[in-house]
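Fold it.
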Amino acid sequence: MRISPIAVAAVLAAGALTHSPANAQNPISVELLTPLAEFTDDVSIQIRNKFLGRETDALNVRDGSNIATVRVTFQPGAVFPWHTHPGPVLITVAEGDFVYALADDCIDRWYPAGTAVIDAGFGNVHMAYNPSVSDETVVYATFLGVPDGGPLTILTEGPDPAVCPLP
């Protein structure tokens, strides 16, 4: 099974991306770098992740067999709204600053170029944005445990905007 660039970008065309003064037509672009690939062996993955000020999360991916990697370019000020993923995502920040916030605590976590973050997936609602007013942010995201025919990203409702507004 393959995921086409059109399918990956479909979630971006939903009109939910906001705040892009530099490039209002394409505030966030997604380029599929690898087609969906399947390990030929039986693969399960356990990841332990501890954000500052939080308990350690143990992520157990029983079927980590399908993976895909994308390059995501955020124009200055672009916001990827509240969403989740079907499994964990390993994110490498290649250029600029990347801000990631979990819906359950609304804390902006800043990741500069040369750093990485793990998104838990499995219903972990979060958003991300480029805080710069002049520079692009580029991240590489490797999605683990992608279901056959399933989306890489699922837009969802976030917390009450009065309590945790998007930037």
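Helices lie at 5-10.
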